[in-house]
Design goal:
Layout: H1 3-13, E1 20-28, H2 48-51, H3 53-64, E2 67-74, E3 83-90, E4 95-101, E5 109-114, E6 117-122, E7 129-133, E8 140-142, H4 157-174, H5 182-197, E9 199-200, E10 221-224, H6 229-241, E11 246-250, E12 265-268, H7 274-281, E13 286-289, H8 299-316, E14 321-325, E15 336-338, H9 350-365, E16 373-379, E17 381-383, H10 388-399, E18 405-406, E19 412-417, H11 418-430, E20 438-441, E21 444-447, H12 448-456, E22 465-466, H13 468-477, H14 482-490, H15 494-502, H16 504-516, H17 518-527, H18 550-554, E23 559-561, H19 564-570, H20 578-591
Parallel strand pairs: 1-4, 2-9, 10-11, 10-13, 11-12, 13-14, 14-16, 15-23, 16-20, 17-19, 18-22
Antiparallel strand pairs: 1-5, 2-3, 3-4, 5-6, 6-7, 7-8, 19-21
Helix pairs in contact: 3-5, 6-11, 7-8, 8-9, 12-20, 15-16, 16-17
Amino acid sequence: YVPSLQTAKTALEQGLIGRLQSVEVSHGAKFAWPADSGYYFRRENGGILLNMGVHHLDFLESVLGPLTPVAFEDDGAGGVEANCVALLQSGAGVEVRLSLSFTHRLQNEYVWRGERGELRHSVDEFGTCRWAPTDGRLAGELQLVHPYQSGDWKASFSSGFVEQFDAFARAVRERTAVPVPPEVAVQTAGLIEACHGRRVESPSWMPDASSGGPGLSSGAVLVTGASGFVGNRLAERLQRLGVGPVVTPVRSRQTVAGLARLDVDIQQADITDLATMRSLLKGRRHVFHLAYGASGADAARFTIDSTRVIVDAAIAEGCETLVVVSTGSVFGTPAGRVTEDSPYLPSLGDYGSSKAEAERYALAAAARSGSTRIVVINPSAVYGPTGPTFTEVPVRLASQGQFFWVEEGRGHANYVYVENLVDALLLAAATSAAHGRRYLISDGVTTWRKFLEPMMGSHAAGVPSYSLTELARGSQQHSPDLGEILKLATVRNPAFMAAVSKHPWLGRLKQQVVALLPGWQQRVQAERAPDWRSDFLKPNAAGTVRNLWLADLFGPIQTEYVADRARRELGWSPRFPLAEGQRISRAWLNYLGL
């Protein structure tokens, strides 16, 4: 009952693109359903192929007839899959590719390719379908003249449900067959089971890295930050090595789609509460602390407080090892070589300074930790499949014309492939001589251009370059008006709004404004970005440069992190060289449609 789907079906029936040859469907976004019970991610309730895929498969078979699975891969590893790709074929030989994600944004569209052109429509738009004949002389937007029988509704997600209920009611009143009989549901369920029967053990974009890597003595493990990029890969490695059971405390179950694909014990918990963490750490042998404050007014405080609590709780409960993951950013970006003996010069604002304070506490606690061994790890820029900042974000920006090189991309990129970092974490936990030590972990150094271009592919050709002088000039060109200043204060500054709420009379004034203008607060909440990643795809105004923060991450620094201590004391070395890490990352980026 979605008009764009029905428009495409009608266009195919009328032969607008000739004989259909292939269909490509992609649908993905970061999981945002208000789930709190945990039942959403239980195996008996199914993963993303059942949850989202059932609708696409149902519609595809209504157009193409019965489909047969040719290949299927997903990222399930004992839990419910969060990403999958199904290759299917119709009886007429039409090839179908269905890609789904609960963790990342995909291309999010249907593409129907025929002998004489193609049809495209977004999964997020409900009214129209774009038609592009092969000869290029005509192109246009198609829509149904009367998409709904139940009323003259605007094409929307909700309107489809109105039409569905109305069609069912008519079938009951008139004693006619329902438009979609139950046999169709049975057929689609069978197709899902057939796909699972074709399942490949490890998806091509995320190979199993457990063979050939270091091991760890068996025992119960706790991993904080396991819903994040590195923590997720660590939790999976521990599972594949048979180390565990693994418990993973999280702040919200809405963030666990990527973690629920594993067979781990997900506990909703406040890791800044000492009593809670002592309870969770009781009987745990190994502890890995990767959680930090990623966004919000309390981000820095969360990073510091959670580390203090984890350190104190691990010592109190007599855990054998505690590995605290910090960052190379605590050393800043001085020119030349940086080692573990270099002074603290935190970069990247509150992130770097809060990480520095947190690791100081952990290292100082090593002197009083008794039998608990404490180690700090300082990784450089971490990249790899599912990685945001140094993998997906630059390439997504480049695909939208929003990325730029700083000084031709000549700055130093100190990089570490995610699986090489996981190797270091396991070695740190297993090495008794590492107690009270910290270790820089970096595979090597190259330029940002050489690091990113192989992952950008064809998008790299159009990336401009700006000098620092040009960027400084561009940051001064734009003078905000009063409306923009108010927006910065309310939308981009949650700390400011929190202070207003607590003020004796400003707080009351705010409550009165909210009461009079309830839509205002809703718009503020909707527009408030949790961090820069959610706001990077807006078009540039003429003559301006957006995303000036790129200069902080990809600027012309000449710093080189030296990992000699980790090589010497932990026996660590990068198993995955840069070219291999880039190759695997490209496979992931291809899955995302980038």
